[in-house]
Specification:
The complex is a heteroheptamer.
Chain A: H1 3-29, H2 33-58, H3 62-91
Chain F: H1 2-20, H2 25-46, H3 71-102, H4 120-128
Helix pairs in contact in F: 1-2, 2-3
Chain G: H1 5-28, H2 36-54, H3 56-63, H4 67-87, E1 97-102, E2 107-112, H5 113-139
Antiparallel strand pairs in G: 1-2
Helix pairs in contact in G: 1-2, 2-3, 2-5, 3-5, 4-5
Classes of the chains: A mainly alpha, B mainly alpha, C mainly alpha, D mainly alpha, E mainly alpha, F mainly alpha, G mainly alpha.
Bound molecules: sodium ion (2 copies).
């Protein structure tokens, strides 16, 4: 591997990880649930990049397989979380205490 | 050698877009606008890096997988954005200075 | 009901009754055959190996002592079982009664005959269990149940001590065989464990024989049916302790501790019990306390240990068995026919129940120690032995004197009161009991007289050999009815005089005693309850604190145990004595490594501290991704893929589940608990330290090298991780997929098997009992066949 | 499709001829095969349509990639400049395409291209709601989508 | 050779698969009985082979030790598998009348059989990580069985059981990792030699303590037993019974196996800890039982207490003590499972397991009373039942070692055991039923009666046989203990078992 | 390198212990996920860390590269991950169902299996019923 | 059910794609990253997506078999792959290989009990995860 590519990889790693850090900060800050989901979704996409960079760095195609799997499943997680955001907000608006359903049955939505 | 430079450029550019995606998600004012950053810059960044991967290995198996990954991202990222965007709208996340078309509120919230 | 003239006498107990009589009778006959050889000084050993690897044999040692006991057990057993056919034969649980009684008899025989300490203990406990079941025979009565438990626990405590004593003795002697141990007296008495052995044996003997302060269970045990009282609690079981002390005399006896322990416990029990016997109004209780007194006396004299004392003890042992069994059976007949045992109620039954009266009178006279009855001889020997004692002569003699006087009184109370005097109206229709019932007391009473007149018979066949066996060498035993006017005889006469006076005044005496006892703060029987309550209170206190029902506390203790144990071991074993080469460790670390580290750390801390569920899930996702990055960075693509897939599924499942779960802060606001944080840090620190220490060493890579070399040639695969999974360690993988299947099935069962809402808040008790139980209404159950949906 | 199949067969034949079955050789083979088929299209009835569609697809992909890059640059600018430049709004667009796949394609396209992000499609498939970063003129956005993107997608997928 | 060692794992798994696929019909439950019988037969064949040949081992996949996974059986393993077969069959029969069809359709029999497979796997494996896997197999199927039925008490008990057991699992896993990190091997026989060459012997003790805690939770020793009394009284009786018999014993087995084969480098330290643990476990368990007023909860606490005795045997680490521990294991499994089965019948005919709510069984169900008394008095250590010999051996061992205090504790705990067994007897059997009910066995259908009482009677007979004829069992335990104290044969057999020995 | 992983494991363990000690059983589940990760890392690191060289045999070769990573712990971790997932999934459904039927996620409030201990006095009275008969004397 | 046309369309595309991809990962596992677990996990993600997008009922219908039966049959297949060598007189889980073609030249198709085992693993993981997810989805 030429020093050019190797340096570029090092820089790219730093950039990608900085991107991940940005996502992480957003994740912590929120403030809304969708913000957090967006942050997580973006992080999985960045992990795809990370895997790609690693594949080049190590010369192992195995990491491309990791990348493809991440692309597949990151989507699934996002969909599930998005549904959670959507439904949850419908069910419990705001932070008013919820009465536990142990005693009586709630109507299905 | 030229291939190395191309790859280096792709990798750097990809890394840059990834960085922008992260920064955008962090900096932009509301969730829908942040999604523009994550969806577009993120996908492009990853795509560029994957192209570099495809060039780097240049055997058919790896290239197909790298390209398949790109296609996959292109296919799923907007759908994911749609899901989050809809959820965000429906859960009434405050939007920054956003003009709402008449009737959109009800239609989108159902 | 007309007599059909059947030749075979009808027994109320049916076949069980016959069995119950024939077994002891046959055994009696069998043991009788040993009388000759034993009287000639032989010691017979008959038996076989039981658990040879533990040196345990089932072997009978027939010598004078054990044969005397065996004959008493089987002989009185026959009479008692005969008696029981009428007393209990109609009882629906009579067969069980017979079963317990036979079990008891076997236990008692085994106890006295075993040559092996451990076998002896086995039978000892058999008597404990069967007596428990017999005392609790009238299980409907709370009193019976309590008494049974009390007897069981008190004698059981002693039994366990005895077991320890036996093991120690076996260790000291190198064998469990009694016949061998009996020859090692000096070695045992000089052994370092002698004191412990003695204390443990005496604990067993004193509890079993109800010596003070373990005496209280015996009067309560009178809750048992009368034949049981007659058999167990006067003639046999309670003498198990006496037997043990007698048996161990050659081995453990003759030392100062032995002497003082026995004469103090025995003497105190004697006096104490005889005084209390006067205080009773239930005649059975009167007899129970006199039994205590007799046990005390026996203990006392075994403790004294002179040949005269042993002789006296053996005579008194036989004497007492006869009259006391007879008296218990007598009062049983009275109770059975007249419906009461209260001394205040019973009067003038002599004419209504002449045979019973006669039998009782014989026994009572023997008990009172009046010549020419066997009891007189017994008392004379006691006086003789007391007067001969080398130490504490006055105290021993005084004790026996007091006891004899009070026994005289008790005999009067037991027989004169119910049978003499004017017959009250209520007993008009009372009549004599059946022959099966009076036969026992009659025979025993008659024998008391017969042996008094012909003392040679018991002397030669029983008392003599028994005394030899206990004393450990030949003792000249010569039973006589009248031996001239000596100190013992004079004491006897004084006894009668004082006894008569006290008998006449006994009602006033009883009232006085009642007042004294009422004022006495030390009460053993309520003390027993307090002990149990205290035990239960301790148990509940402990359980309330330990098994508190608070899950977080359980978890805290579990982790705290881990942290403390690990920290202590790290320190104790001086593990952290290496020098960490930090510079070397940090060499080659790039931004991405640091970033991943920070990423995971921040994710973990966020997950731990956030109050938002969504943030928590996202933080988990972050940690999962971070760990996957580590797997990527350190060359584990398969693991990374799996980790990512699994982590995503975790997020998906949590997201689904949380649609119906409340917010983290709803009703479960976590109070800030510094000790939790402290423990968390401690556990984390300990883990890191151990890990660092482990990673300091070199790793032996034999296994990996083997896999690397054989994967391609022998397992035909290039992905070594996968080859390990499906070939080298396929069994692991198989187990693992079993976990996955079962996890899914279990979760499915949980979700499908319990529909939310089908179980009502208050439905719990209903489900747990009603669903599975067969209900009182059998019709409803049989209607739907097998009763299973 | 049999023309597409023939094209594939030609690509494989090319790769086999050159002796290396790699992706580049296949792509080259495919391109050469297409050219050959295009030249000989009178021999294959219906191949006109095939080429028209192929052309539209290629055009679609190329425009799409271009717009993805443009939109990303736009994001870069907004992210890197200190002030927020966006003037966001939510705009409805009436839809002509009906099939699920067409809608999917369209929305993906919209979401990845400058300034627009697809929020939802009404259940009757009649209206599309998009979030626009620069929503000063909703009609302009609508027109751009209807006449640019939607048309090209429809053409490619019909 | 291989098949002999593998069948106790294969048979229950195959049964599980078939029973699950036939779960909707009656075939499922009969398959379960049949499979359990097959397990028993195979375990007996295994036992006979071990008796005949000494330690046997088989390399899974023909990979030589220590590279592949070895299954190995010495006498301890073999007897544990036999006992698993016995209790497994007994409870499978009992389940015919105890488990409702609803639960069968949810996969009861599959869960049950996999549990048995996991238990057998744990007893037979010669590989530490594989042991972890079997622990998990056991654990997850026990989770499923525990909550099957889903009453509120089950859910609550389930949470306690699951949380605490998961912690133990993690500790076990981490311990395996660390031990591998020190020695580079996972094969237990190989570890026996490898631990001698560890650079930092003290660290080995640290890891040993980690294993002690992990297995300690499984074995329910002080102060890690909370999960057991919190949950064992909640599931179906069959489930309680199999748990009571087998699960904690796998923990004890693992303690014995690892602390005789691997962690013997600093006995003065580790086994002293075990001695303290043993004493405290005995006492706290039995006091817990004294505080309980429910049939099953009393029994549950007694499991804890009895585990203390077994750990005591290991802690003393003398030949006789290990004989006692082995004997105790065997005795306890039979007796404790049986007591739970009796509790189930009592509940069926008297309506509850809460002692305050039942009674009268002695008068109207004398057979059940007898069948209770045998295991109960055996548990309490009354001679001549099996429990007496177990306690005798241990107390003798303790006294021989000069452990007077621990012997005294063991004896006192025996007394308290009597106390709570008689509490059950007094309340459930002697005292009249508070509702005036006359609980009779005849209330059960003939089929149920047969299914419920046959296993109870069989186990009771077994208890009596062990009690009356202890010699062969003591001799057996002696040989087993010899193997444990001198693991050379085990080590050599495992490491030498040539891959070709497959046939 | 291993040092960093060790520290990270420590942090993960500390965080998960903190979560597991919470009264909210959902937090326990979160802690479980974290601590499983920690345990996996322990195994992984125990095999020592090797960067950028997966244990794969390249095409045409018969053994992996000389510096290839240790494959065994990877296989063990893989097994552990899947097992951990199974356990987690069950635990989650259990918590889910328990919440619905017990009406709470607060383990302090779950007192069905182990009901609040009765006041000692009452418990004593219940137990004492068996011992009603007491003789007045001795 | 999400009631999103966009998601539904994407799902339709993805399910079959993921299924094919998962089988690909399964079959190559012995030589490259992949194998039964990974394959099974990926295969199940497709149907999970299906369940989320269109509801568990539709997903069950698409599956044809009860997922828990799939899982159990998978377990049975894996067991059979381990028992087969026992029947052949070898140890439990001894790999049995048949090479169709010439291994030395690299032109061969391997058929092995190990592959059968991995297929069992695939089915187990696939079935088990779907059992779990569908049971949970039924609740939503
Ligand atoms: Na594995
Ligand atoms: Na257990």
């Amino acid at each position: 591997m030429s020093p050019v590519l190797s340096t570029a990889l090092d820089i790219a790693f730093v950039l990608v990880m900085l991107g991940v850090v940005g996502g992480f900060v957003r994740l912590v800050k929120g403030p809304s649930l969708p913000d957090r989901v967006v942050a997580l979704d973006m992080m999985t996409v960045l992990i795809v990049s990370f895997c790609g960079l690693y594949a080049i760095l190590s010369g192992q195609t195995a990491f491309v397989d990791v990348a493809i799997v991440v692309a597949v499943i990151g989507f699934l997680a996002t969909v599930a979380l998005a549904r959670y955001v959507e439904r949850r907000q419908h069910r419990y608006d705001g932070s008013t205490p919820v009465t536990a359903p142990g005693a009586k049955k709630e109507p299905k939505t | 050698m030229i291939v190395e430079y191309i790859m280096a450029a792709l990798v750097l550019l990809g890394g840059f877009f990834c960085f922008i995606a992260g920064l955008g998600v962090l900096r932009l004012p509301d969730v829908l606008i942040r999604m523009h950053a994550s969806t577009k810059a993120g996908t492009l960044g990853s795509g560029l890096i994957l192209i570099a991967v495809a060039i780097f290995f240049s055997d058919i198996g790896t290239m197909t997988r790298a390209l398949a990954t790109i296609l996959f991202l292109l296919m799923t990222a907007p759908v994911a954005a749609h899901m989050i965007g809809r959820a965000a709208f429906r859960s009434r996340v405050p939007l920054w200075n956003t003009k709402l078309e008449e009737g959109a509120e009800e239609k989108l919230s159902r | 009901m007309a007599d059909t003239g059947a030749e075979v006498p009808r027994l109320a107990g049916g076949p069980a009754g016959w069995v119950s009589i024939l077994i002891p009778a046959a055994l009696f006959a069998w043991f009788a055959q040993f009388l000759g050889p034993v009287a000639a000084g032989e010691v017979l050993l008959i038996g076989f190996d039981w658990v040879p690897s533990l040196d345990i044999r089932l072997e009978m040692m027939v010598d004078g002592l054990s044969l005397t006991f065996a004959l008493l057990i089987t002989g009185i057993g026959t009479l008692v079982t005969l008696y029981s056919t009428s007393y209990l034969g109609a009882h629906p649980e009579y067969p069980r009664f017979v079963l317990y009684l036979m079990a008891f008899m076997v236990g008692m025989l085994g106890l006295v005959l075993s040559d092996n300490l451990i076998a002896l203990f086995v039978f000892w406990e058999v008597t404990t269990i069967s007596s428990y079941l017999l005392i609790g025979f009238t299980s409907d009565s709370a009193k019976s149940r309590r008494s049974a438990l009390q007897a069981l626990l008190v004698t059981g405590t002693g039994g366990l001590a005895l077991l320890a004593g036996m093991i120690l003795l076996g260790q000291a002697a190198g064998t469990f065989s009694l016949s061998e141990i009996l020859t090692m007296g000096d070695a045992i008495r000089g052994h370092a464990h002698y004191d412990a052995i003695l204390v443990l044996f005496l604990a067993g003997a004193f509890t079993k024989s109800a010596q003070f302060p373990f005496h209280f269970w015996l009067p309560n045990a009178m809750a048992a049916p009368t034949p049981v009282s007659a058999y167990l609690h006067s003639a046999t079981m309670v003498k198990g302790g006496v037997y043990l002390m007698a048996r161990m005399t050659p081995t453990l006896g003759g030392t100062e501790p032995w002497f003082w322990a026995l004469i103090i416990a025995g003497g105190f029990t004697t006096v104490f019990a005889s005084v209390l016997s006067i205080r009773q109004t239930d005649i059975k209780q009167v007899l129970a306390y006199t039994t205590l007194m007799a046990l005390g006396a026996l203990t006392l004299f075994i403790g004294v240990g002179t040949s005269a004392a042993i002789k006296a003890a053996m005579v008194f042992l036989v004497v007492h068995s006869f009259y006391k069994a007879a008296l218990f059976l007598m009062i049983g007949i009275v109770d059975h026919e007249a419906g009461t045992r209260e001394v205040g109620d019973l009067r003038g039954l002599a004419l209504k129940m002449p045979v019973t009266f006669f039998a009782g009178a014989l026994a009572a006279i023997s008990m009172a120690g009046i010549p020419p009855f066997f009891g007189f001889i017994g008392k004379e020997f006691l006086y003789d032995a007391g007067l001969e004692a080398e130490t504490a002569r006055i105290w021993i003699t005084g004790t026996i004197f007091a006891a004899s006087v009070l026994m005289f009184v008790a005999a009067g109370i037991a027989v004169a009161r119910p049978f003499l005097g004017k017959l009250p109206e209520r007993f008009k229709d009372t009549h004599e009991g059946p022959w099966t019932m009076w036969m026992g007391p009659f025979l025993l009473g008659a024998l008391s007289l017969f042996f008094g007149i012909y003392p040679d018979i018991p002397e030669v066949w029983m008392v003599g050999p028994a005394t030899d066996a206990v004393y450990g060498s030949d003792v000249d035993v010569d039973l006589y009815l009248f031996h001239g006017i000596n100190a013992a005889f004079i004491l006897s006469m004084i006894t009668f005089a004082v006894g008569l006076v006290l008998y006449l005044a006994h009602q006033r005496l009883r009232d006085g005693l009642a007042r004294i006892i009422a004022a006495n703060p030390i009460k053993f029987d309520p003390g027993w309850d307090r002990t149990l309550d205290g035990l239960r209170a301790i148990a509940e206190w402990q359980t309330r604190h330990l098994q508190s029902g608070i899950l977080t506390r359980y978890i805290f203790i579990t982790f705290a145990t881990f942290a403390v144990a690990m920290a202590v071991t790290l320190w104790w074993q001086d593990v952290l004595n290496f020098r960490l080469d930090v510079a070397n460790e940090l060499e080659g670390l790039l931004f991405k490594h640091w970033a991943v580290l920070l990423f995971i750390t921040a994710g973990a801390i966020l997950a731990a501290l956030t109050r938002s569920r969504m943030t928590a899930i996202a933080a988990l996702g972050v940690v999962g991704i971070g760990v996957a990055l580590i797997f990527i960075m350190f060359s584990a693509p398969d693991v990374a893929i799996t980790q990512l897939l699994v982590e995503t599924l975790v997020v998906v499942l949590v997201a689904v589940a949380m649609l119906k779960l409340p917010h983290l802060h709803v009703r479960t606001a976590e109070p800030h608990r510094p000790h939790h944080a402290l423990l968390a840090v401690a556990v984390g620190t300990v883990t890191t330290l151990v890990m660092v220490a482990v990673l300091q060493g070199n790793l032996d890579l034999r296994l990996t090298e083997y896999f690397n070399e054989t994967a391609y040639y022998e397992a035909y695969g290039s992905n070594i991780v996968n080859v390990i999974l499906v070939d080298f360690r396929a069994l692991d993988t198989f187990g693992e997929i079993a976990v996955v299947v079962i996890a899914a099935l279990s979760a499915y069962a949980l979700l499908r098997g319990t529909r939310y809402g089908t179980i009502r808040e208050d439905g719990e008790a209903l489900r747990d009992t009603v669903d599975d139980a067969v209900l009182p209404d059998p019709a409803a159950r049989s209607a739907d066949g097998e009763g299973r949906a | 499709m049999n023309i597409f199949g023939m094209n594939i067969a030609l690509a494989i034949a090319w790769a086999a001829l050159t002796g290396e079955i790699t992706l580049p050789s296949l792509i080259v083979g495919f391109a050469l095969g297409s050219a050959a088929l295009y030249l000989t299209r009178p021999l294959f009835p219906g191949s006109d349509r095939y080429f028209k569609r192929t052309f539209r697809w290629v055009r679609l992909v190329v425009t799409f990639l271009w717009e993805l890059i443009v939109s990303s640059v736009q994001v870069v600018i907004d992210v890197l400049t200190p002030q927020h430049l966006a003037r966001p709004g939510i705009v409805s667009v009436p839809l002509d395409v009906k099939g699920e796949m067409e809608v999917l394609f369209l929305t993906n396209y919209i979401s990845l291209t400058p300034g627009t992000l697809c929020l939802d499609v009404t259940e009757d498939c009649n209206t599309l709601y998009i979030h626009a970063m620069f929503a000063d003129d909703p009609d302009e956005i609508r027109r751009h989508i209807k006449e640019g993107v939607e048309r090209r997608v429809k053409e490619a997928m019909e | 050779m291989s098949w002999i060692l593998a069948t106790p794992i294969i048979i229950p798994f195959a049964t599980a698969v078939l029973a699950f696929l036939f779960r909707h019909g009656p075939e499922g439950r009969w398959l379960s009985v049949l499979g359990s019988a097959g397990l028993l037969v195979s375990s007996i064949i295994l036992m006979l082979t071990v008796l005949d040949e000494g330690v046997i081992a088989a390399q899974m996949g023909q990979w030589p030790a220590p590279f592949g996974i070895t299954l190995a059986a010495d006498l301890l393993s073999a007897v544990m598998v036999v006992i698993t077969g016995i209790t497994g069959l007994a409870i499978a029969i009992y389940a015919l009348a105890d488990v409702e069809q609803r639960k069968e359709q949810l996969g009861y029999h599959a869960l049950y059989q996999v549990l048995l497979a996991g238990v057998c796997g744990a007893f037979l494996t010669g590989d530490l990580f594989n042991l972890y896997v079997w622990f998990e197999v056991m654990l997850i199927s026990s989770f499923g069985l525990l909550i099957l039925g889903g009453t509120r008490a089950q859910l609550d008990g389930g949470i306690r059981y699951v949380t605490l057991n998961l912690i133990s699992t993690i500790l076990f896993l981490s311990g395996v990792g660390l031990l591998y990190g020190m020695t580079g091997t996972l094969n237990m026989a190989d570890l026996h030699g490898a631990v001698q060459e560890v650079d930092n012997p003290g660290l080995l003790v640290v890891v040993a303590v980690m294993f002690m805690i992990a297995f300690g939770v499984k074995a329910a020793v002080f102060p890690l037993f909370f999960w057991l009394p919190a949950s064992y009284h909640t599931p179906a009786i069959s489930v309680s019974a199999i748990f009571a018999g087998l699960l904690t014993k796998v923990g004890v087995y693992s303690l014995i196996r690892t602390f005789t084969l691997i962690f013997t480098t600093d006995i003065a330290y580790t086994h002293t800890i075990l001695l303290w643990v043993a004493g405290l476990t005995m006492v706290t368990g039995v006091l817990g039982a004294a505080a309980m007023n429910d049939f099953r909860r009393i029994l549950s606490f007694h499991i804890v207490s009895q585990i203390g005795y077994m750990v005591l045997g290991l802690a003393l680490f003398t030949p006789l003590a290990l004989v006692g521990a082995v004997f105790y294991l065997v005795h306890h499994i039979i007796v404790k499972a049986n007591l739970f089965l009796v509790a189930g019948v009592a509940r069926r005919i008297a309506g509850s397991t809460e002692l305050g709510q039942i009674g009268g069984l002695y008068k109207t169900a004398p057979l059940l009373a007898l069948l209770f008394l045998i295991p109960a008095f055996s548990l309490a250590g009354f001679p001549p039942l099996s429990g007496f010999w177990a306690k005798f051996l241990l107390i003798k061992a303790a006294l021989e070692e000069g452990g007077y205090i621990i012997a005294g504790v063991a004896l006192a705990v025996g007394l308290l055991t009597i106390f709570s067994m008689t509490k059950i007897w007094g309340y459930a059997f002697w005292k009249p039923h508070p509702a005036g009910l006359e609980p009779r066995l005849s209330r059960l259908s003939a089929r149920d009666r047969a299914a419920l009482l046959t296993p109870i009677a069989a186990l009771a007979v077994l208890t009596c046989i062990i009690g009356l004829f202890p010699e062969p069992f003591v001799q057996f335990a002696t040989r087993a203990a010899e193997q444990l104290l001198d693991p050379q044969t085990y080590v050599q057999t495992v490491l030498a078992a040539a891959p070709e020995a497959g046939q | 390198m291993e040092l960093l992983v060790a520290i990270m494991v420590g942090v993960l363990v500390a965080a998960s212990v903190h979560l597991m000690l919470a009264r909210n059983v959902l937090r326990f589940i979160f802690g479980l996920v974290l601590i499983s990760n920690a345990a996996n890392l322990i195994i992984f690191a125990s095999g020592r860390l090797t960067p950028e060289s997966p244990p794969l045999i390249a095409e045409g070769e018969t053994t992996p590269a000389l510096d290839a990573a240790n494959a065994l712990p990877q296989a063990l971790v893989l097994t552990a991950i899947v097992i951990g997932f199974g356990l987690f999934a069950f635990a989650l459904t259990l918590v889910y169902r328990a919440y619905q039927n017990l009406g709470t996620l607060n383990s302090d409030e779950m007192r069905v299996a182990e009901p609040q201990a009765q006041k000692p006095s009452t418990a004593g009275q219940v137990a004492e019923k068996q011992y009603i008969a007491r003789d007045a004397d001795a | 059910m999400m009631n999103s046309i966009i998601l539904n369309a994407a799902t339709r595309l993805l399910v079959s794609l993921l299924l094919v991809f998962s089988v690909y990962m399964l079959l190559r596992g012995h030589n490259l990253p992949g194998g039964g677990f990974i394959g099974g996990l990926i295969g199940s993600t497709g149907f999970i997506l299906y369940a989320i997008a269109m509801g568990p009922k539709a997903c069950r219908k698409a599956l044809h078999f009860e997922p828990q039966n799939i899982a159990m049959i998978g377990l049975g297949i894996s067991l059979a792959a381990g028992v087969f060598p026992v029947v052949m007189g070898e140890s439990f889980f001894t790999g049995q290989w048949i090479f169709i073609g010439d291994r030395a030249s690299g032109d061969y198709i391997p058929v092995s009990s190990v592959l059968v085992f991995d297929i069992g693993v695939y089915l187990v993981v696939f079935g088990a995860i779907l059992t779990l997810v569908l049971a949970l989805e039924d609740e939503v």
